[in-house]
Amino acid sequence: MSLTIAVHSYKGGSGKTSFAINLASAYASVGKSVCLLDVDLKAPSSFNYLLPEAKRWVNDVFEGRYGVMDVVMDVSKEMGTAGAFDVGYSNPDILAVRDVSSKDRKWQSKALKFLMNAKRDLSNIGIDVVILDTGAGVDFTSVNAIAVADHVVMVGKPGASRQRAIDQVVKGIYIPLEKNCSIVENMGHANNSTDLSYEGQFDLPVLASIPCMCDVAVRCDNEVLVLTEPEHSFSKNIFNAMRAIDKLTS
């Protein structure tokens, strides 16, 4: 059975999508069969990082028009990974984003069922790791992705106000859903160790504390560092997080 990881954040701008793409690429680079699904229907962005261009969208899966195997594309050749690397994009067209914003709870319930079916179908074809790049916050689409995941990674920035926001997500979503979860501190102060003190409070492990690096902020817009520069300190943090997740879920 495949391992499904939801990469989540309490708000946009945390580096969630960059982390999700690099984590998926890290697994694929070591020979795992990986599928990355962009389920951030209200603010899709993975299509900016990966090729080729999509013909069908994850939105089509949630609408029941297509199954997940009709939507995902193998990008392992383009990315140069040892393992199979499939990706499914959300539709970035503004009309599609507006349409998602108008959906009601009945639609979200059906979307949850379709997402569970997608997880099953990917597992049945031998995908080792499914990574869900969720929407930020706690709307129904994000909660659906968290609900179907085997492990949830919260990507957050350090700081007291941000920590309070993450507290609410942990207490209000992760704990009630009994999710196996962990924290990645991103864009922290270079001279500080981990600022997010969750290990004692919620018994949540901090997988990595990634300092803010100007070159990463620029380069992650158009390249996947774990593949182009695996010895970079950012890449090493991603690989360390990957190994820590494997230990937590084994």
TrEMBL record:
Cited InterPro entries: AAA_dom (IPR025669), DNA_Partitioning_ATPase (IPR050678), P-loop_NTPase (IPR027417)
Designated name of the protein: Protein with CobQ/CobB/MinD/ParA nucleotide binding domain
Highest taxon, organism lineage: Archaea
Species assigned in the record: Methanococcoides burtonii (strain DSM 6242 / NBRC 107633 / OCM 468 / ACE-M)
Domain AAA, residue spans: 4-170
UniProt signal peptide: none
A Pfam family the protein falls into: AAA_31
